[in-house]
Design brief:
Blueprint (H helix, E strand, L loop, with lengths): L9 H32 L9 E4 L6 E3 H25 L8 H27 L21 H38 L1
Antiparallel strand pairs: 1-2
Length: 183
């Protein structure tokens, strides 16, 4: 009988974290491509603050930038889930696809909701976190406040996603599924 210490698992967890990061990097590319395509279809990032839905009875509204964040998140989330499932966390018995996807989507959605507020803070001129000119503006693609806000928000929300998905989606859900099979 071999005993392993907590420290023996660190290289394995570190490898998973690096793989999760690489998948996340690919997901960032997917997310940013969605943002670029959607903004170009909307006439450029200069139109990102356009109101697409006023919330009745409140001073709040849904702006195109928020729609871009949500769609980019959903597309990248499906991409990241499949790649993490088949590569990062492939060495454990898998639960059925939907049994793992819904928790992954739930975790990602919680981070995405926080991300909406973070991105708004980066793009709202009244926010103390507003990305300032002359470095960020909507007159040139590489300096687009919209794209940098999208990228910074992804970077901020990624570590939360890793920890919760490792512990819940790809460990707890799989262990729970394995227990039902063994029972």
């Amino acid at each position: 009988m071999t005993t392993t210490s907590r420290f023996d698992r660190y290289p394995h967890v570190l490898r998973q974290f690096v793989k999760f990061g690489l998948v996340g990097g690919a997901g960032v590319v997917v997310n940013m491509l969605v943002a670029i395509v959607m903004n170009k279809a909307n006439g450029g990032t200069v139109n990102a603050q356009r109101i697409i839905l006023a919330i009745p009875g409140t001073p709040y509204n849904l702006r195109y930038t928020t729609l871009v964040w949500i769609v980019g998140f959903l597309v990248a989330n499906v991409f990241n889930f499949q790649l993490n499932r088949s590569w990062t966390f492939r060495h454990t018995a898998k639960a059925p696809w939907l049994h793992e996807f819904w928790p992954f989507l739930a975790v990602g959605s919680a981070a995405a909701i926080a991300g909406i507020f973070i991105k708004i803070a980066f793009t709202n001129p009244t926010s103390p976190l507003f990305l300032p000119e002359p470095w960020f503006h909507e007159n040139a693609g590489l300096q687009s406040r919209e794209y940098w806000a999208q990228l910074f928000t992804i970077v901020i929300t990624t570590p939360i996603n890793f920890v919760v998905n490792k512990l819940w989606t790809f460990s707890h859900i799989r262990n729970k599924h394995a227990a039902t099979i063994d029972a």
